[in-house]
Each structure stands twice: as C-alpha cells, then as structure tokens.
Amino acid sequence: MSEADETLDRLAQEYVRRLRAGEAVEPETYALAHPELAERIHELFPVLVLMEGLKPATDPEAATLAEATKTGIAAPDAAATPERIGPFTVVRELGRGGMGRVFEVRDAAEARRALKVVHTHLLERPGFLARFLREVETGLRVAHPGVVQTIESGVAEYGGAEVPYLVLEYVEGTTLRELIDETGGVSERLARDIGVAVADALVAVHAAGIVHRDVKPENVVIAPDETVKLMDLGVALVQEEAMRLTQTGEFVGSLLYAAPEQLRSGRVDARTDQYALGLLLFELVAGRHPEAEGPGSLLTRRFGDGRPTRLREMVPTATPFLERVIEVLLSRDPEARFPDTASVAAALADGESAAWWTAQEAARVGPTRPRLFEGAPAFVGRGRELADLNDAYADILRGAGRARVLVGEAGIGKSRLVAAWLDRLDAETAPPAVAWIEHGPGAGVVGLTPLALALSRLLGEQLEATVLSCFGDQTEAAASLLRHLQNPEASEDSDPLTRASLEALYGRLLRAMAATQPLVLVVEDLHFASAEVRAWLQRLVPALASVPVLLLLTARPEPGEVWAQEAAQLDHVEVMHLAGLGAEDGSALFANALGTDLAELAAVQDVVRSADGNPFCLIEFAAELRARSQRIGARAEDVPAMPDSVQRLVEERLASLSTQGRELLAVAACCGDRFDPVLVCEAAGVPRLAGLRLLHSADREHRVLAAEGATYR
User: Fold this and answer.
1) Per-residue pLDDT tens digits for 28-78
2) How much is the pLDDT for 199?
3) What is the chain's mean pLDDT, rounded?
4) Confidence at residue 540, expressed as pLDDT on a 0 to 100 scale
5) pTM for this one?
6) How many Å separate Cα 588 from the centre of its chain?
7) Is the pLDDT confidence value at 599 over 50?
8) CA 259 to CA 455: how far, in whole Å?
9) Could you tell me if residue 119 is left (phi over 0), alpha (psi between -120 and 50 degrees) or otherwise beta?
10) Which among 54, 15, 20 has a CA at the least distance from the CA of 31?
11) Has residue 373 got a pLDDT over 50?
C-alpha cells in the first residue's frame, strides 16, 4: 500500500469511528485538511457512510434511517410476515436485503415460488415503477438453466401500500456461502467447475442486456441435481436506481463484491460482473475474501492503486493458471479484463489447454515449470544431491551432455529436489530453458505427446521461428515437426512420418535449442510413461552425450526394469537413489511443516524415525497434528505412533470416509499417486460436483488426499 493509500485508510477509519460516536463530521473537513486526497475523500467517504449504515449526525432522520439501512429494509416494511401477497399464500420469510423481503409462497396450483417485495421507499423515486416494470420484461427473457427464473411480476397491497413484487423460481440447495463456511475453501478443480457454471449463467444475463451487479457466494446455489444457479437477478432489474449513492440511503448490491468503477461512478457494464466473479473464485479456493480486513481498508484499496492479494499468497498449492485468471478478472481497469464473460467460461473450462492461457504463457518471462510454492515448508537437506546437480549443470555449460536418474519411493522428494535446485539456479545464474514433461495420470502418456506439449509451452510464440531456423530450407521436415508440436495427438495418427523419423526431428530441435541457451529437460514420473516413451528415452540418453542438455528423469524403483541399469553404464549418466532424510534434516522439515522450532525434542525425533525420513509423510503428519491442535511434548508417548508410510493413519482416515467416498478413492487408486479428479468421477459414474465435494472432504477433513492445483495426489 502506498503512503497516500495508508493516509487515506487511516482517515477513513477515523471518520467511521467519529460517525459511530455520533459526532457531526463532514467529508469536507478531511478534504480541506488533505487537499492532495480531496478527490478520493469525496469518492470514498459517502460510500463508507452507506456501508456502515450511518448518516451524518446533522441529519435529523439519522437514527431512523440508520436502523432501517442496517436491517436492509425501510421501517414501514418491517411488518410481521403477511398471510398473503396478491394471489400468493405466504409460507415463510426466506430473508431480506438491499432490495426488499423475500418469501416462500405457493401459487394457485400449490407450486412453490419465491416472491420478492420491493422496498416501499424505492417507490418514492419519480418514474421508478415504470422503469422497474420495463426491466422486469427484460428479466423474463433470461431463460437459462443456470439462472433462477423470473416468472412474473405484479403489484399487491403490502404494509399498507401498493408495492411491486417479483415471482421467482424456488430453488433448494446449498449456497456457495454455506459451502465455503462448511469447507473452509474448496478444491481448485471444484472451483473451476463452479466458475464455468456461473460464467455461463452470466453470459445469458448479459445477452439480455442486464448487468447482474450482485454476484457473490450468497447468490449462487448448488441445487440437489448439481445445477449451479445464479440468484437475485432482481438487483440487476433496478440497476438505474441502485447506484445513486449521493441521493439515497442505500446501496443495492454488496460492497465487498463491487468493482472499482461501480463505486466510483456507478457506470457499469458486463465487465463489472467479471470483477465480482474473480472475488467469488478467490473466496471459493482460499476460504476467505481477499479484502476482508474492514470497510476502510477495503475501499481504500478499491480507490487506490495497490494490487489485490494474489491467490497463491494465501493458497500456495493453487495453479498459476487460476491465479492469473483471477488476476485478470480483478483488474481495476475494465479494459484489462476478459473481453466478455463467454471468454471467461471458455478459459476456465479448457484450463491450461485454453488458447487464452497459451497466449498468457507465451507472454510470461522465464521458464514455465513447477516451483516450490511460497508458504510450503522450506526445502532442507539433500546437500550431496544438490552439489551433484550443480556439477552436472556446470558440465553442460562447457558443452557436454549429462543425464541424472533420480530414483526413490513415492513421497521421497524427487520432484521437490528438482524444483528446489532450479529455483536456486534462477537466483544464482542466468536461468536455463526448462522443458518439464509430466507422465502423471491424465497428463498425456502416449507417444511423443508429452515432449511436444512441454516444448510448445517453453517456446511459446517463438515456436514456429525456432523450428524454421533449425531446419533452414528443409521445409517439409519443419512442417511435419510443427504439425506434431501444435497438435501432437492428431498428427501422430495422420502424419506419414515414421516414429524413427519424428524422433530424429525432435533430436535435431533439442540440439539446436541447446546451442543458443542451456537446456534442462525434466521427465517426471517415468514409471507412468508408456513403453514406447521409455524405449525412446533409452535411445535418446546415449545420443545426448555430446549435446549440452541436462536430462533429469524421476522414477520409482521398479524391479526388473533394465533401462536405468543400462543407462548407468554410460559415462555421462548417473543414477541417484534418494533415501529418507536423516534425523537432523527430517526434524527440521517436520518442525517447519508444524510451524514450531522443536527439532531437538525427543518426540520429534521419534516421528522422523517412524516416517523413515519420508518428506511427504512428515509434512502430512504435521498437517494432521495441526488439524487436531495437538502439541508436541518432550516425551515420545505424547505423539501418536506413526508406522511405516503412515499405514495405520491412512487406514484410520479411510475408515472415516463414507462408503461412496471410499469407492471413489478405490477408483482413484487405480490411477497411481496423482490423478485428475474429473476423470475419476467419470470413471466411477459419480456426478461431477458430488464427486468433487467428496474428494475435497477426503482432502480437507480426512486428509487422505492432498490437492495439487487442479489434481490430487
């Protein structure tokens, strides 16, 4: 926050305190004392008054109006629940808010409906009723399964006056607010799916010429059939009146989810709803609003120049993709957001394969690869392995090729070691180009597809130029390789090139890339790769002996495999067997994960020994202890026993799952230690949202899974 923002924040909070104390204080007093902030004070302070439900003490109606605004309804509307409103029988009051009261009613056919009665004080505005009815006609044209339907409108006697009302589709289910409160934040995969549904609903709303204005967790409900529905379109229907902040005692909408332009001038368009959608997505994953500290701080940031909190500052395991989507949605300048809401839906639906993300990746500076997240336990130990990787990198800088095969059991830290080493390399030297190939379940394991995807991400907009430069006048070869790089799955079936020819073209491309910049090629989880990929690597490793490429392969030990043993016979190849962390390093990691400095205690040493120094087990057990709010004491008996690989702990957690949850995890187990939750839900025949909620519960409540971006392990 800039110095000006800090000053404005301090003045705003002082202003609110004085108003609450009943002082007669005007914004102009602060504007005169701080002329450099006068314009922002005149914008911000009236909004603070409305947000706090206050009126300046000089207003003789302050007490009445303040109380009315706090309850969200003018005093004459605060009557008891009526028995009937027009032709509808009232069952119960569902709630009240900025526009009026909402009741569950039954019509003449006994169908359940929701009926919203408009505030009586809105009727005092000239021409309001005519505009309201005109807007209702627009709302009736929104027919979309993801939008709560506006059925009809009318006028009926209520509270001693003739007032307009809306009749809406009655929807039972769980609001996103209830879901967030229940879970503390959902998995990224589930958040993406909900985001697609909400964005699709907004596309329909915007196509009807309406800006919703009040997209927030309370206004999105997941119905029993898993349909995600956007509610409270009625706020949009009075949009012309809603933003007259200086003329009314009420803000129609929610300030926590209002876009900067909505607060500054009230001039809004469809991109205003994008801002609220970005906040909703953030809150879904993080479990809290990014600007929840208080009204003064919130509005100061909205009117100031500081950036919003980044998603991965609060959720380190979130993907760069979702963080960037939210960052674009929360742009202060509407022009910097997505061109339309359909583009948001498409990006969220396609994920990292979206054309939008490809363009974003191409514009990024530096290599595209996994990194150790901020907030994750600090990397410790592995000094000998880090030194060996440094030596290998030094060799490729001198023009030699090197390969390292990192072998170890699940959770031993193979990927973490590579990511930590590359992070340090970025800080100490000019970073190399890094192509990161994954062979986890659902990552694409057929043929050369993983290599094509990795090189395409790395080269980005320079892909075509790099290939053409590599092959010169051999246009047919360049065209064949480009086709495979741009659409590997399709071209492998249709391209006349033999597999040997295609491998030769990729080898030539790698050699050309390494000639211009140090190149590190990481091949993750080789045990998941297809037999043909392993065979290709077995041919590639010897060929790279004279090419300045550092090839890093990670794999679990697999008896009977000969590829690693044969590769180890080559001078430029070493197989690095990763064992568990030693007592000192394991204790340090466990203490870091636990958030306390207890590495010397005997109880901590026992945990490290029982976990066999496995980093994943140590981090998971620390998370379990934090979740149970247990303290580590100096005696071993103070810590629950942890058998090898936390077998008993896992069994205990599995037993606490529902039958459907255990069946879902049984399907997931067939995918290995990392899986795509959507594919698992489809394979198990479980509805997507229900399955994602079960997996989220297995992660957050039972801790038998751990979310990694949009996947689980």
Assistant:
1) 788 888 888 877 777 667 656 654 444 444 433 333 333 333 333 333 344
2) 97
3) 75
4) 81
5) 0.58
6) 30
7) no
8) 39
9) beta
10) 15
11) no
Q: Which of 636, 341, 366, 373 is closest to 517 using CA atoms? A: 366
- Summarised one tens digit per residue, pLDDT across range 400-453 is 888 888 888 777 888 888 888 887 776 555 678 888 887 655 433 456 777 777
End-to-end CA distance of the chain: 37
Q: Return all residues near 259 (Cβ < 8 A) that are at least 6 apart.
A: 268, 271, 272, 275, 276, 334
Tokens of 33: 């004392």
The C-alpha atoms of residue 278 and residue 167 are separated, in whole angstroms, by 29
Task: Say how far apart CA 40 and CA 359 lie, in whole Å.
Answer: 36
> What are residue 286's phi and psi, to 5 degrees?
-85, -20
Contact (CB, 8 A) for 512 and 541: no
Strands (E), 378-518: 402-407, 433-437
DSSP 514-546: HHHS-EEEEE--GGGS-HHHHHHHHHHHHHGGG
The gap from C-alpha 474 to its chain's centroid, in whole angstroms, comes to: 44
Percent residues over pLDDT 90 in the chain: 12
Q: Is 340 helix (H, G, I), strand (E, B) or coil?
A: coil
Q: Which amino acid is at 534?
A: R
Distance CA 314, CA 290 (A): 9
- Please work out, in degrees rounded to the nearest 5, the angle formed at the alpha carbon of residue 473 by the alpha carbons of 469 and 479: 75
- Give phi and psi for 83, each to the nearest 5: -80, -35
